[in-house]
Amino acid sequence: MIKRNLLVIGLAVMLSACGFQLRGTGNSELAIKELDLSARDAYGKTVNQLRQALQSSGVNVHTGAPYKLVLTNEQESQRAATYSGGSRSAEYELTTVLSYSINGLNDTNLLNDKLEVRKVYVYDGNNITGASQQASQTREEMRRDLVQNMLVRLQLLTPAQLDQLQQKADERAKAEADALEAARRAQDETPQQSPLQLPIN
Q1: CA dist 192 to 34, 186, 189, Å?
Q2: Topology given in CATH for the domain delimited by 30-163
Q3: Cβ contacts of residue 64 below 8 Å, gap of 6+?
Q4: Domain ranges of the chain
Q5: Helix 2-17 crosses helix 128-155 at what angle (to 10 degrees)?
Q6: Whether 145 contacts 117, CB under 8 Å
Q7: How far apart are CA 49 and CA 25, in angstroms?
Q8: 174 phi and psi angles, rounded to 5 deg
Q9: Secondary structure (H, E, C), the chain
């Protein structure tokens, strides 16, 4: 099921990148109309761009919304893909992983997931300034891809699905609380053994 969803998301992103839209998917509005949004880096570019994208998609982003999207971690890594010693040029692969969670009532965690974006750019050692600009531009493109991919993920969620996740989370929390209470009662009802008194010589 998860693999199938990921395949659908991947195809949708690839087709939209080519300018192709499936019939009936031209509307970027989400079924979720209210959402709180926060991030570890509250003033970071990713969370700001995502907030703007959500608002453009008809979502009322505000504190106190029934559900909260939390960008828990954003990690970037870089590795050399190819290297040419003679021309001092190299291809570098950038990877950004964005971990996120969706929380419900009483900050109950409903789901955790992550997005990953990879891109390759060419570093020209003979043009350091141009190479630096190329790397910066590639990072901006990756950030836009992350935001777009997040919107695709959110389009797959409906308020009814979130309500169902909330119900399951509440049931788990109640079961855990009942188990703790039962364990406490069992401990209270267990006779306590008197400490062994040693004779005093």
Answers
A1: 54, 12, 9
A2: Double Stranded RNA Binding Domain (3.30.160)
A3: 36
A4: 30-163
A5: 130
A6: yes
A7: 22
A8: -65, -40
A9: CHHHHHHHHHHHHHHHHCCCCCCCCCCCCCCCCEEEEEECCCCCHHHHHHHHHHHHCCCEECCCCCCEEEEEEEEEEEEEEEEECCCCEEEEEEEEEEEEEEECHHHCEEEEEEEEEEEEEEEECCCHHHHHHHHHHHHHHHHHHHHHHHHHHHHCCCHHHHHHHHHHHHHHHHHHHHHHHHHHHHHHHCCCCCCCCCCCC
Q: Does residue 196 carry a pLDDT above 80?
A: no
Q: Token pair of 157, please?
A: 């969620």
Q: Rounded CA gap, 170 and 183, in Å?
A: 20
Q: What is the pLDDT of residues 53-112, one digit of tens each?
A: 999 999 999 999 999 999 999 999 988 877 666 556 788 899 999 999 999 988 899 999
Q: Cα separation of 33 and 28, whole Å?
A: 12
Lookup: tokens for 97: 């992983």
The residue type found at 12 is A
pTM of the shown model: 0.70
